[in-house]
Amino acid sequence: MQSMQYPLNKLRENIASSFPSTTFKVLKEVKINIIKMELSITRPDDWHLHLRDGKLLEAVIPHSAHHFGRAIIMPNLKPPITTTAAAMAYRESILKALPINSGFTPLMTLYLTDSTTPAEIKLAKESGVIFAVKLYPAGATTNSQDGVTDLFGKCMPVIEEMVKHNMPLLVHGEVTSPEVDIFDREKVFIETVLSPLVQKFPQLKVVMEHVTTMDAVKFVESCAEGRIAATVTPQHLVLNRNSLFQGGLQPHNYCLPVLKRETHRQAIVSAVTSGSKRFFLGTDSAPHDRLKKECPCGCAGIYNAPVALAVYAKVFEEAGALDKLEAFTSFNGPDFYGLPRNTSKITLRKTPWKVPESFSYASGHVVPMFAGEMLDWLPSPV
To answer: Quick check: 143 pLDDT over 60?
Structure first.
């Protein structure tokens, strides 16, 4: 290939005109057609994160704290975080496990059950550290056996109290009926649970977590902006269900909701790179010990915290929408939750780097998403 010299000033002009709302720096003049860049964005937040507890918590929290300012912490521990007192105790465990001088803030949630009371919702709101309630249909995913079995029969007083306090309901949007095909569970949940719920409580703020289908995209886009939103994971933006089986069964690509068809992946990419305020970053990073993934009955969950920002940047770059990345990662989430945006910055450098094969901790190893592979964007705090 013939090498070509690019004038530095011209490169800066071209990049600035293509991405007017995003800060870029050309690091140096280069030959051929390779441009090394820095992308500076407001520090992102993770609006859907699993941290586990004990030694595993201590092992994984530095990865999220390094990249994100805040995170909505999922409550599906054993036992689940069903009370304000339990949430506050879990929060203290997280803070103690953080690296020294970390500015990371955990935003706590309650695990909704058939026996949750309106009084508990009021107490959670008054705590100042609990920001949402998580709906797990019983049996839908990891540690969801204590989840809701009768939303419209037993949980209506709680939902009414949440509306009163403007507390969002975060939904794992899948039905669990065995007669429903696993690839249709999200679609059926929208039709039989979420749509009726939104109609009954039009003032309820709802986040449809880790959306996986064009049906979810269409539903979120059809609702009033500011009332219904969705988080989107790295895996559902770059992987489809073929990724579960290529080269043999791939347990580290197994998550719930399960990966879907390519047409659904494309619909989600189009939604998040469109600039819509209804979608924001939620990694659903879910660490499991390697032995619990690579076994006869493996756990659902992808550990993506170390690579999430690199993957999101890849998706937006390939869509020609890097100018919209900052809103998705850093603005839409806090705006929906009514929280201030972060003021610090993070830098994404167009620098190839290799993902570690695994991360060790006291009890074993955790395998990250894209283990051993090369990624193009390297994030680091400013």
So the answer is: yes
Nearest to 53 by CA among 1, 106, 115: 106
pLDDT digits (tens, 9 = 90+) for 63-102: 999 999 999 999 999 999 999 999 999 999 999 999 999 9
Query: Token match 């879910």: residue?
Result: 286
Strands (DSSP E) along 129-212, which ranges? 130-135, 169-171, 206-208
pLDDT in tens, 342-369: 999 999 999 999 999 999 999 999 999 9
Q: CA-to-CA distance for 121 and 124, rounded, in angstroms?
A: 5
- For residue 326, the surrounding DSSP H or E stretch is helix 325-326
Using CA atoms, how far apart are residues 87 and 128, in angstroms rounded to an integer? 11
Q: What 3-state DSSP class applies to 290?
A: helix
Model pTM?
Answer: 0.90
Q: What is the spatial order of strands in the sheet that 228-232 belongs to?
A: 46-49, 70-73, 105-111, 130-135, 169-171, 206-208, 228-232, 279-281
Torsion of CA 136, 141, 146, 151, to 10 degrees: 30
How many Å apart are CA 237 and CA 283, to the nearest integer?
11
pLDDT at 117 over 70: yes
Residue 27 has pLDDT above 50, yes or no: no
Closest by alpha carbon to 146, among 117, 177, 115? 115
| Amino acid in the structure at residue 340 | P
CB count within 10 Å of CB 248 equals 7
CA distance 97 to 87: 15
Pairing of strands 37-42, 23-26: antiparallel
Beta strands in the chain (DSSP E): 23-26, 37-42, 46-49, 70-73, 105-111, 130-135, 169-171, 206-208, 228-232, 279-281, 345-354, 359-361, 364-366, 374-381
pLDDT tens track for 182-218: 999 999 999 999 999 999 999 999 999 999 999 999 9
Residues contacting 115, CB < 8 A, separation 6+: 154
Place of tokens 């609702």: 223
Active-site residue numbers?
Answer: 48, 50, 134, 172, 210, 284
Dihedral angle of Cα 182, 188, 193, 199, to the nearest 10 degrees:
150
